[in-house]
Amino acid sequence: MPSSIKGGAGEWQVLKALISELDNKHVLDLRCGFGWHCRYAREQETGKVIGVDISDKMLQVARGKTHGPQISYMRMPIEDIEIENDQLM
């Protein structure tokens, strides 16, 4: 889909307004796809960002487009995720 390649779906402007203050917050992106929102969150000076998706192919692309240790990706169904506080620190 074009939104996955270029980033930002049709609802992006509304979502962006809702998450406008990310300074030093930790972000969990469920169904992160190609990692577009993860990278956007990191650009906003977040703390750590974790992206979760079930698709190995999507995560391979996300990892290839991501630079730096502040963003990590996990492959699993979102209903199975368990994040401990120390994973966000």
Automatic annotation (TrEMBL):
Species in which this protein is naturally found: Cytobacillus purgationiresistens
Keywords of the record: Ubiquinone
Protein name: Ubiquinone/menaquinone biosynthesis C-methylase UbiE
Pfam families per record: Methyltransf_25
Coiled coil: none
Keyword RNA-binding attributed: no
Domain of life assignment: Bacteria
Matches recorded under CDD domains: AdoMet_MTases (cd02440)
Residues annotated as domain Methyltransferase: 27-86
Keyword ATP-binding carried by entry: no
SUPFAM superfamilies: S-adenosyl-L-methionine-dependent methyltransferases (SSF53335)
